[in-house]
Amino acid sequence: MTFTGKQLTTQLDADGTLTVQLGDKTWDAPKPGQVLIKVEATPINPSDLGLLFASADTENATYSPGKVVARMPENATRAMKARHGMAMPAGNEAAGTVVAAGEGAEALMGKRVACVPGTAYGTFAYADAAMCMPVGDEVSAEQAASSFVNPMTALGFVETMRLEGFTGIVHAAAASNLGQMLVKICQADKVPLVNIVRSPEQVKILKDLGATHVLDMTEPDFMPKLIDAIAETKAMIGFDPIGGGTLAGQILTAMEAAASRGAAFSRYGSSEAKKVYIYGALDLGPTILNRAFGLTWDLGGWLLTPFMAKAGMEIVGRMRARVASELTTTFASHYKARVSLEDMLSKEAVGAYNARRTGEKYLVLPNG
Amino acid sequence: MTFTGKQLTTQLDADGTLTVQLGDKTWDAPKPGQVLIKVEATPINPSDLGLLFASADTENATYSPGKVVARMPENATRAMKARHGMAMPAGNEAAGTVVAAGEGAEALMGKRVACVPGTAYGTFAYADAAMCMPVGDEVSAEQAASSFVNPMTALGFVETMRLEGFTGIVHAAAASNLGQMLVKICQADKVPLVNIVRSPEQVKILKDLGATHVLDMTEPDFMPKLIDAIAETKAMIGFDPIGGGTLAGQILTAMEAAASRGAAFSRYGSSEAKKVYIYGALDLGPTILNRAFGLTWDLGGWLLTPFMAKAGMEIVGRMRARVASELTTTFASHYKARVSLEDMLSKEAVGAYNARRTGEKYLVLPNG
C-alpha cells in the first residue's frame, strides 16, 4: 500500500536562492521500527525556522501558491554550504494517526500519537516508533502536536540546573509557550524562577499563572530589580532564547552583582559559579558581552538532543512520562493561528510566524 | 626588630578619583607561617594593572613624584563600589631575600625566594611561607621575579585541556612572555598548539622558538588559515587574554568550521565540544560573538586561583616542581624596562606599561 500527498521542502542553492515549496510525494510502507502517520497537527517552532528560512529576506521574497523564493545573505549562504542544492524536508514534531506500521511497531496501528518525524510539514510522515507517544482519544491532535520540543526543553532546563549543582533559574523571553510550561514546572518542583519578559502584557500572562518574579526588561529599573530577584532566589543559571544583543551579558552582570553583595572587593570578581545558556536565536544579531562580571562565569549553547544524550535514559524516561501525564495541563500550548500546508507559505503567514514574536505561534493542519 | 620603607597603594574614592601613591610604612616581625622579604624584583602583570589603574584615564592624570591622581569612568567607579576609600597595596608576585621569618618558617631565613605576596610593590613584603619557592644563589632575583603568575597559568592551560578532555590548544596574543612559555611546554609535552599573534615580528619570535602554527590575525587570510590549523591539530580549546572584540567568537567559528568539514549539514551545527576561555582583558571593550558556530559551544572566564583549587594538590604540586626546575629555561621572562618604585609612577612608565602591549613588560626593582 502507498500513500500520496504533499511534502514541504526547503532548498538553498549556492547562488543564495532559497526555495521553500510544496511538492507531490508518495509514501511506501514504513521500515521495521517505524510508523507512517497521517499528520494532523504540527507546530512551527523557532527551531524549525532556522532550517525553513534561516536569515533569508522573506519580506522581499516572491510568493506564489505553494512556493516562496527568497534571497539568503551571502555570509549565511556560505556558512550553510553543506546544504546547498538539497531539497530538505522540515517540521520537527507533530501529532497524527498511525496509518501503517513497520515490523515491531504493529501495536501503534490506528492510534493517535505525538512524535518527532523531522519531516512533519507533509500530508504523511515517517516516525521512529520508539519516540512515539500514544495519547488516547480524549486528547486532540492539536493538544498533542507540541509534546516534544517545548515540554522536553522546559524539563531539560530544570534537569540541567540539578545536574550542574544550581538551585534557581533565570529565564528570558519567559512568556512563550515554553516559558509558561517552565513556570508551572518550577511551581510544582519548588524551584525558584526569575522570569524576564518584554512587555507589561507578558508580565500579566505570567503573574496570572502565579509566577513570583516577573521582570519587564523594557522598564528603566530592570537591572536593579533583576539583581534583587537573583539575590533573593540565588538563581545562578540562566536560559536565553534571544541570543543576540546584551541580555545574556546583563544576566551574568546581575548574577555577579548579587553574588558580590556584602562581600569584600576582589579585582577578579566573585568566585561563585554563574552560567547562562543561549538556546535559540530570536535575535540573529551578535551577542554583546560587556564583561562586568569578573572571571568566574560561563556562557554556552544549549540544545535538547545532546542534553538528552548526556542526561541518559533514566532522566529522559522520567521526563517523557511527566509530559504524557500532564499534556493538557502543565504542557498545554497556545497558538495564534491555524493554517493549511498551502497557507503556511502565504506572505501573510510567513511574515507573522517568521517574526518569532512571543505569543504568535502558528499550527499547521496538513489534513484540514 | 622592625623594617621601614615605602609601600605603593591604590585608592578609588566614590567620586571617581583614583590615587596611586607611595607612602611610608613599617613592617613588624612576620606572623607564624609567614616570612618578610626584602623585595628585589617584581613584575607589572596585566592582572596587577586591573587593580592599580583599572580603566582610569592615565593619559590625562596628574603626575607628581611618587603619586598619580587620575579619573575613573563613572560606570567603573560604580562597579568597584566595594573598594571605595580603601588604600589597597598591590603587586602579585616577587623575588626577594627573607629578612625575617615567623614561627615554623625559620628554614627560609636569609634565602632568596620567589613568592606571591599580593603587596609586592614595596620595599618589604610579607609572604606565605608555604607558597615561597627558594631559588638558590645561581638564580638572580630578576630571573625569579615572575615564577608564579605566568608559569602556573601556562601550565594551567595544559592541565585544563587534559582535565576537560581536549587534545590541542589555540592561544591568542601568543607572543607574550606567557605565550612563549606555552610554546615551550607544548613542544616538550607534544601538545598541538595554534598560536595567534598580531604582527609579523611576533610571528618571527614564535617561529624562532620552533612553533609550528603561528598565525597573524592582521593578515587577510587569517580565518581560512585558522580553520586549516584547527582542522589539522584538532585544537578545540582556546585561551584568549584579549577579551574585547570579535576574536573569541572567531576562534569558536573556526573550530565549528573545522569540526563540520566533510560532515552532513545540521541546522544546529556540529556536536563536537568547543570551548574558549577568556583569561584577561587586554581589550576592555565588549566581547562580540557573531554566533556562527551552532549550539555546541562554550565561552567562560579562566582564573588561576579557582583553577588550582579545582585541580587539587597533586596537580598543583607537579606544576610547581616543574617551574622550579625549569625557571631559567622554559619559564624565562623578558622585560622591556626596569624601574624603581618612584619611576614606576612616572607618566612615561605608566603610559608604557598600562598600554598592555605584548613584549613591553616592566620589572620593578624596589631596592635598586
UniProtKB/TrEMBL annotation, chains A, B:
Ranges where the Enoyl reductase (ER) domain occurs: 16-289
Alphabetized InterPro entries for the sequence: ADH-like_N, ER, GroES-like_sf, NAD(P)-bd_dom_sf
Keyword NADP appears in the UniProt entry: yes
This protein's UniProt keywords: NADP, Oxidoreductase
SMART domains linked to this entry: PKS_ER
One example GO MF annotation: NADPH binding
Short name of one Pfam family: ADH_N
Protein name stated in the entry: NADPH:quinone reductase-like Zn-dependent oxidoreductase
Organism in which the protein naturally occurs: Novosphingobium kunmingense
